[in-house]
Design brief:
35% helix, single chain, 342 residues, seven-stranded mixed β-sheet
């Protein structure tokens, strides 16, 4: 079986540096808010060509803290409307509703899976770089928060950007982790305090905060992996372009390439998706579905009574093929000559 994402193989490529970094933290005796986190924040901010980076516990917290901080700054208030693509992972919506804001679901462009036009009244946009492709939105006066959970390696364009370092991401930790990136100094100062129980100074709490901090071990791991992120994304791009050039099944709709795409996932579409997935499994290719049930059909949001036919069509058609930087040439060839795809 060709595995969908063998994380052990991906991480083995970073040895012995990875183990040495972990050992360095363990021996230091300092495990939160230390030098590794400070150095990673500085290095990742520079990588993103941004002024600030704040490490947090995970990608959902990164988004949630951005909205919370904008409320403290007076840029958003309870009930304000936030435009968001309807076909995103549910975490994007949770960050909005956890802040007592109102999600406004918008259908995506079915060729890019992303938002490409804004026509509804709102205070902010949560743009999601789904599957690793950066959305190309027209300029406007709304707050633009960018969900970069799947697009580490692309330079953010929004007022603030949220990253996830979940192990399966292009820049993956060995556990949970996340970050906020922004050029807004005041916003990031508030986010840093919010993630530390609302405290800027020990035992003085300015806000009703959270416990959301990137730990030192994960920061050390991410520092090792960040050095090779561009190289790894280049490998992903090469594999994706081969798939696009050589998969010939007329019943499959292939994703569109873009210069602003890091190919977190290679997602095809097929009207007979379930049958195709079954045949691929039987022939030794593991696949996954991202995502089978859109947020507006999930129990927490069913009460919104949304009609989103494009989003529901995509949920019934999408299928993700194996694509990662540790793939062997043999695995790529076996997928490309598979009778289901060739």
């Amino acid at each position: 079986m060709i595995p969908f994402l063998p994380l052990n193989r991906i991480n083995e490529r970073f040895e012995p540096e990875l183990s040495e970094a972990i050992s360095r933290v363990v021996k230091s005796g300092w495990y939160l808010r230390g030098q590794e986190t400070e150095k990673f924040e500085s290095e990742f901010a520079a990588f993103c060509e941004a002024k600030n980076c704040v490490g947090v516990a995970n990608g959902l917290d990164a988004l949630t803290l951005i909205f919370a901080a904008y409320k403290i700054l007076g840029k958003l208030s309870d009930g304000d409307r936030v435009i968001v693509p309807a076909n995103t992972y549910i975490a994007s919506i949770m960050a909005i509703t956890k802040n007592n804001l109102t999600p406004v679901f918008v259908e995506p462009n079915e060729d890019t899976f992303n938002l490409d036009a804004i026509s509804k009244d709102a205070k902010a946009i949560l743009s999601v770089n789904l599957y690793g492709r950066q959305a190309n939105l027209p300029k406007n006066d709304l707050l633009l928060i960018e969900d970069c959970a799947q697009s580490a390696g692309i330079k953010p364009k929004g007022d603030a950007a949220a990253f996830s370092f979940y192990p399966s991401k292009n820049l993956g930790a060995l556990g949970d982790g996340g970050a906020v990136v922004s050029n807004n100094d005041e916003l990031c100062e508030i986010i840093r305090a919010l993630g530390n129980y609302g405290s800027k100074k020990k035992y003085i709490n300015d806000y009703l905060g959270f416990n959301s901090r990137l730990d030192e071990i994960q920061a050390a791991v991410l520092r090792v992996k960040l050095k090779r992120l561009n190289e790894d994304n280049k490998k992903r791009n090469e594999i994706a372009l081969r798939y696009i050039a050589e998969i010939k099944n007329p019943n499959i709709i292939l994703p569109k390439p873009s210069s602003e795409h890091v190919w977190h996932l290679f997602v095809i579409r097929c009207k007979q998706r379930d049958a195709l997935q079954k045949r691929l499994t039987e022939s030794g290719v593991e696949t996954m579905i991202h995502y089978p049930i859109p947020p507006h059909l999930q129990k927490p949001y069913k009460h919104l009574n949304c009609e989103l036919p494009i989003t529901e069509m995509l949920a019934n058609e999408v299928l993700s093929l194996p694509l990662h930087q540790a793939m062997s040439e043999e695995e790529i060839e076996r997928i490309l000559i598979n009778p289901c795809l060739a």
